[in-house]
Amino acid sequence: MIEHNISLKPYNTFGIDVKAKAFGRFKSVDELKDLLQNRLSKVGIETPLFVLGGGSNILLTQDLPFFVLKNEISGIEIINETETSVVLKVGSGVEWHSFVRYTVEKGWGGVENLSLIPGSVGASPMQNIGAYGAELKDTFVSLEALHIDSAEIHTFNKEQCQFGYRESVFKRALKNQYVIVSVSYKLSKNPKINTTYGAIQSEIEKLGVNEITVEAVSQAVMNIRRSKLPDPKVLGNAGSFFKNPVVSKSVFEQILKNYPDVPHYPQEQGEEKLAAGWLIEKAGWKGKRIGNCGVHEKQALVLVNYGGASGQEIYDLSALIIADIESKFGVSLEREVNIF
Ligand code: EPU
Known about the structure:
Elements: E1 3-7, E2 19-26, H1 29-42, E3 49-52, E4 58-59, E5 64-71, E6 76-81, E7 85-91, H2 96-106, H3 123-126, E8 130-131, E9 134-135, E10 140-147, E11 152-157, H4 158-161, E12 178-188, H5 198-207, H6 214-228, E13 236-240, E14 246-247, H7 249-258, E15 264-266, E16 272-274, H8 276-282, E17 289-290, E18 293-295, E19 302-305, H9 311-329, E20 338-339
Parallel strand pairs: 2-5, 3-5, 4-20
Antiparallel strand pairs: 1-2, 6-7, 7-12, 8-9, 10-11, 10-12, 13-19, 14-16, 15-16, 17-18, 18-19
Helix pairs in contact: 5-6
The structure holds uridine-diphosphate-2(N-acetylglucosaminyl) butyric acid.
């Protein structure tokens, strides 16, 4: 069924109340194909498509003159299993965290560090989600996507997805050409626990467990995230609003002179990745509120909607922060959230 002028407030974690020109849900590839076929007669081919997963990484600044397709493809299926590993094919509409919990409860390793990331399975390769020392690409095998123009299903392997830091080919060269319908991941039955990210190690110690299992790591990550990141059901937000910037050696050395304790992560060719949250906090923005929105008090990388904020208000706040960080540190922050 295709509906018109539907409020998107329940479908974006910032809780922004804008309307979509047209809206339809799909639970299978066939339902998706039906929606695309009916697009001609019921919506008009000139109306661009907008595929919505969990709505957890978008900021809507205006009514969307788009045909919004809400992905509800479910299902987790074992497609290959050996003594040491299992490959799961997962419907792209499955909530990411439910998939993570499914694997953790089986004791399979690979995605436990990515517990509690909001959003859907289909969005996970889109921006190569990452947290606490792990990235989607570490377990990714392949994905299936519907090519919108031809209505054919195409398979992409890891190389073809061109993963980068919060990047993939689907955000660049192939933008708006495909709808991801399933993603396959390889999990390990003899998990290698990754607690290199400092906070995980100390959080596991607090749990007081005898053995460090994938469940313990998942629990530790959930505890850390719950302590720092606001729950979108309580306070509208889209996780990290900005990317962590990579800067040249000379910009880094300038900052180091004034702030010898600046957190930094060495990159190739002498460049350094900085923590955007740290820069924003040092510039005095942490916990600051302007109108109905603000900078989260426990994690400066997260912008929050205190209720009733418009997307434009939040966007304007982000522009103020970007300009201030540029003038104070000579660093250009990029938005990680997709703006519409
Ligand atoms: N920091 C501050 N002040 C803050 C926030 C952070 O000084 O308000 C400092 C921390 O003390 C630490 C450094 O900045 O030294 C890094 O902070 P943290 O470990 O919290 O991670 P992050 O760089 O702020 C990134 C991801 C998160 C992910 C965490 C954990 C990006 C843009 N963000 O945040 O991802 O959960 O690491 O791995 O890469 C997301 O993408 O939505 C997201 C939440």
